[in-house]
Amino acid sequence: MPDKPLTERRAFDARIENPWNELALTQDTGFFGSRRGKKRLEKLVESVSSALTAAGMEAPWWPDTGGAKPAAHIRIDRMGVLKDLKHYAAELEGTDVAEVMKGKGVPTAFPNLLRHREKNAYYWPVDFVEPMWINVDGEESVPVGSSGGLLKELDKVNQMLKVEKTFRMQKMVDYMDADEREIAKIETYMDVSGKFWLKFGFLVMRKLAQKSVETNLPIVFG
Predict the structure, then answer these.
(1) Which of 1, 14, 136, 184 is most deeply buried (CB count within 10 A of its CB)?
(2) Domain chopping of the chain, boundaries
(3) What is the residue-wise DSSP string for 137-166?
């Protein structure tokens, strides 16, 4: 992955790392900005840990010093990387992405995929069914999904998608930093069925979910 500042974000920016590493991204906001960021993260981690413990699950722990290099980091200069994947999953079960996103009132077989988003969001390396939405600052709630749950949902999607048989790209790399021109080159070479972003998005999310489970680290969306 090219050596670029952590604060330089692509439209899609997902990392597998100790969540406390995020504090390094706010160090240039001054004392009060950094302190506010730390308080928000502390509340998020504590809230998720409490919910998991109450449900009889073991909450993961990570040192609050952070600092380690991400185990994976995928950055793509394009909005809506997962749009086609989400719509495909919804079509498989006859639901609507927007309706499912509203809450548990609309049943879905893909809660960790559809009741989630690509910005300011997380997946914890713990196996649970429904994403949690944590309010850390009295304003917008932050979704925390399950990496293990997501991986199971993607397996269901792939029973119909069959990405290994219909897409030239079989695996996703751990590190990617692609601008639109680079993605266009990949799309031209790889796409054999007119569903490039559906299958590319699938590979991205499967890589992130697998890596999260393997390393016991969360997926962090910037």
Answers:
(1) 14
(2) 12-221
(3) SSSSEEEEEEHHHHHHHHHHHHHHH-HHHH
- Where do the H-state alpha helices sit in the chain? 30-54, 83-93, 97-101, 111-114, 147-161, 163-166, 180-190, 196-215
Q: What is d(CA 205, CA 207) in angstroms, rounded to the nearest whole number?
A: 5
* Residues 6 or more apart whose Cβ sits within 8 Å of residue 146: 112, 123, 124, 126, 127, 128, 129, 131
Supply the pTM of this predicted model.
0.89
Contacts of 33 (CB under 8 A, 6+ apart): 26
Q: In the structure encoding, which two tokens stand for residue 221, read together?
A: 């969306």
Q: How many residues does the chain have?
A: 222
Taking each helix axis from N to C end, the angle separating 83-93 and 147-161, rounded to the nearest 10 degrees, works out to: 70
Tell me if 16 sits within 8 A of 72, measured CB to CB.
Answer: yes
